[in-house]
Amino acid sequence: MLAGKLVRLRAVQGSDCEGGWRWLNDREVTLHYSRGYPVSRAEQQVWLDEASRQTSPPAIVLAIDTLEGRHIGIINLDGSDRENRSAELGIMIGEKDCWRRGYGTDAIITLLRFAFDEINLNRVWLDVNAENGRAIACYRKCGFVEEARFRQHRYKLGRYSDTLIMGILAAEYRALHGAALTKELP
Amino acid sequence: MLIGKLVRLRRFEKEDLERVLGWINDREVTRFLAARYPFSRAQEEDWIDRVSKQPPSEGLVLAIELLADSRHIGSIGLHDVHWEDCHASLGIMIGEKDCWGQGYGSDAIVTLLRFAFDEMNLHRVTLDVLTDNDRAIASYRKCGFVSEGTLRQAYYQEGRYRDLLTMGVLAGEFRALHGVRQVKAAS
Question: Do B149 and A148 touch (CB under 8 A)?
């Protein structure tokens, strides 16, 4: 369990299926994440069964819970790029009433702390639709900077749109959010 | 078979094994490629077996041969084909070192891009290249690729992190640069 200020990140479990199934079939939620093919419960269960067995590199999939214990989203790191100490971050806040409240930002800062201070990554990157202003603002706040713009990289809603690549390095994270807190153990 | 001005692109065959095994284990050849570990004969057999049977929906890896004497000098491929977004990434290796700097790579790329845009109906082709690989970058620019950004410290090699330049070319840009395909009237 990784504890943030607003959320806790825990391993996903089979019983998370219903929430994920509902989110992935809501185009408002998936507009910037996925293609929008309808997802079956069976498909989502298979994904969860696999994801729940991957809580260490190369793939880390964690559920985002509020401090009250409500399951509101998913965050993941794909760290298959071991030699380069680089991993891709993905996040979805599926419960729409939880948008714009800082849960995503807190989840990312919490997972980045783990990525840099425990897994010993040097770089975390992500791609984001250039039209997804809310997400981009959140990533900037976490410390990501824009590194590239893939032109006409993504096709949806009948047209091509650009994709931004954003990255953050371990040293940049520590400069922004402080070095690891080493508490005296009791 | 795809025919360029200097090279032709054909599918791989079992008989290509020895040459490719030699190239992929030559550090001078792979220095700028995402090839980090020594490659065994068994691995190379599996690779050739896979790419020679791969359906085009999963990508297209082709051997580069000189038109002049049919000498097999390298390989080129389209990977990570995204059919909805209509894009793919391009990789190339000229394994025969005496063939470097002679325009064979550029001709192979232009030939494959023509096929990608005019036959596969792709919209965009991308690649990543180490920022100090000047010869490759010059070739990619000549083919029509433009820089889209720099991925900082994205690749670790020879004791340090290195930047990757990420480049892309769109179908419209390719046609503006290299012309629309000539349709010959049947005689």
Answer: yes
